[in-house]
Design a protein that fits this description.
The chain is mainly alpha-helical and about 150 residues long. The protein contains 8 helices and no strands. It has helices at about 1-15, 15-40, 45-55, 60-80, 80-100, 110, 115-130, 135-145. The protein is flat, with a radius of gyration of 18 Å. The chain starts with a helix and ends with a helix.
Length: about 150
């Protein structure tokens, strides 16, 4: 009985797969559009922060990280080139952890408690599952398939 109920609930919830991806996309897109835009509009401050972190080519890296966040956020928002956008977010967040957060991580809980790790997990879900049917990718693929 319990297994049958579990199956019925699973079948019902599977109908909302794309809605779940849309909610995830909107959440991560809003975050990275704002942070990317903010960093680009204050590129001098972002560059100074990258200098403090000891990153090589701080201006170039600040520009690339800011642009990646903004463009990936926009792509995720509309659901276009979702997997490259997700990879961009994963890359920027991995560098953020390695350069700005790693010294403060003392155990596994400290690592998985990082906000950047949350963003990596969210982007990984999009990398694996794609944008879902409420996306430009889905519309374009349906159009091309006709």
């Amino acid at each position: 009985m319990l297994i049958r109920l579990h199956h019925q609930v699973s079948v019902f919830l599977n109908r909302f797969h794309s809605l779940g991806l849309l909610v995830l996309r909107l959440t991560i897109a809003i975050i990275f559009i704002q942070t990317g835009w903010g960093k680009l509009n204050h590129l001098d401050q972002t560059t100074q922060y990258f200098i403090q972190l000891g990153l090589p080519f701080p201006y170039v890296n600040a520009l690339m990280a800011s642009a990646t966040e903004l463009l990936a956020g926009l792509g995720i928002l509309v659901g276009l080139l979702i997997r490259p956008a997700a990879l961009g977010i994963i890359g920027v967040m991995a560098v953020a952890i390695a350069t700005a957060q790693w010294a403060d991580v003392h155990d596994l809980n400290g690592f998985v408690g990082l906000q950047e790790w949350d963003y990596i997990v969210m982007a990984f879900v999009l990398l694996v599952f794609g944008a879902g049917k409420y996306s430009l990718e889905h519309i374009l693929l349906k159009t091309v398939a006709k």
